[in-house]
Amino acid sequence: MDTVMVMDTMGITPRKSKDDSETRGVFAFLGAVAVAFALLGLLANTAFAASPVHGTEHNRNLRGLDYMPMLLEYHRHTIGEGRQFFAYPARDTTFRTHFNETEARAMASIADTIGDVFVGGPHVYAVAVSPILGIDFRGGEALDDTIWPGVDAGLYIRGFADSLDFDLDARMYSEAHSAGVNKGAKRKPKSYDGEVFDVQSENSNDGGADYVSYSRYRAHLGLNYAFARLELARDVMHWGPGYYNNLSLNQFALPYNMISLDFKFGPLHVLSAYADLRVNSWSYSKDNLNDRNLYAHRYELNLFKNDLVVGISELQILYNENKPWLFVPVVPLFIEKGNYTERVNNGALSMDLNYRLFNTARIYGEFFLDDLESPMAVYENKYSNNRWAAMAGMQVSHDFYLKEKKIEAGTIAEIARVEPYTYGHYDTAMAQMAHLGMPLGNPNGPNSLSIDWAIYGRMTLDKSATTRSIFMSYRSQWLWKGDDYGSSIDDPYKWAEKHFIHGAKMHYNGTVALDFRGVYVGFMGEYTFGSDPAVNVRTTLMW
Question: How far apart are the first and last CA of the chain?
Answer without folding.
Answer: 30
